[in-house]
Nuclear protein localization protein 4 (Gigaspora margarita), 485 residues
Amino acid sequence: MPFDIKQDPIDDFLEKQDGLIKRGRDSKFCKHAANGMCDYCMPLEPYDINYLTENKIKHMSFHAYLRKINKQNKHSSKFIPPLEEPDLRVKTNCSGTHAPWPEGICTKCQPSAVTLQLQQYRMVDHVEFSVPSLIDNFIHFWRSTGTQRFGYLYGRYEHYPDVPLGVKAVVEAIYEPPQEDEVDGLTLILPWNEEKLVDEVAMNCGLQKVGMIYTDLTDDGSGLGKVICKRHIDSYFLSSQECCFSAAMQNKHPTASKWSASGKFNSRFVTCVVTGNSNGDIDVSAYQVSNICTSMVAEDIIEASVDPSVVRVKESTSDKYVPEVFYKYKNKYGVNVQKSAKPCFPVEYLLVNVTHGFPSNPVPLFTSPISFPIENRPGIESQDLKGLYRHLGLEASGNVHVDYVSDFHLLTFVKGTGILDQVFHIIFLRFHSCLFVSSLTDCFFLFQNDFAALARLAVSHEEKDANQLAQSTGWQTLVTIMNLS
């Protein structure tokens, strides 16, 4: 039996689906009755190579790949996890007679050579931005300052029906952490102190961190609103430095899987780049890096190169063993040739393409008609209690307007003020002095429900939740403080 691992709900859902690709009766080749079936109309497996090629699906979905490799477990009396992370480390418990690494090494304990090739599957098949204004608000910073911008994507994973057993990341919010922006790049401040707080807010809204997004935009000077196309087939799509950064972020956000011996496998963390396309228009491109790329970055085998289109393989040192790395390509005669990846190899061997788009009928989770100021934009936008009071349009009674609360940036600001936390501590001390344990427990859940009520209202948009929030002690305290500010 698989390990008892808590997976994402989308994984549990897709494991229960048959995943078969239904086909209708072929009028030309099917000779049987209407209720019959033959090779021309029988359902296809979700990993059928001909179907994927005909529908221009470059990578099969992760669950289609899992179905493909999991067949071996059907005939085994003992469960063997079919997924395994690449291990590029020197084995420390070698049975050889030599001294342990780094004093000695043999073919048994050294990692196997790596042959780079296109990854068959992708963990995420599609990135869907819930509403176009998410991108518009994000690139507004570049339009105002001419400098680049970075943000984390918060959303959820859903079934993507356009790919057999597919998964899409639905983005509901973009949070912009502290950063130093420049015309030709940016510097992130990592780790950032508010990350845990923002993740808690997202969790209260039923969301999680699903990826990152950043701009690479340069106006072409025509005055027509066009931008320069920097990323194309003759240059690069993701630079070597960006690939290494994406790999580090994917390593930081692994995907839980009961089909892996370690309880985790690869990552669904996506990288989106807002840049110019071949027509000079602003467009979004979405990628992941391969599983072997994340392993090589984790073991410090590769690094960024001065040339953004190639990745550099490091040399072995006295205390660091770097395995042989190869890649294959077709020469001018159309013959597959294997070549050593040292010292450098093309960056596209590490990329996994992900499609993106917007829903035809948007139903966003956050529906505030006026955007609350976005965080960490000094000189452009600012967040304060007076602005919060104006945004909410509160009357003296403290009544809550349903729609205006529904803003992710507003929620993170309210959580970051710590006002609700202070209310909790005051009540905690009062009951603690009475040693009234049951009331102390009730007090703890009162605080939890105050912010939970705010988050619930933001995503439910129901009047009953607004009334519950308005009656809570924490909210009344926040309104009082806003009135005095």
Q: What stands out?
A: Residues 423-448 have pLDDT under 50 and may be disordered. Residues 437-460 form the longest helix (24 residues). The radius of gyration is 27 Å.
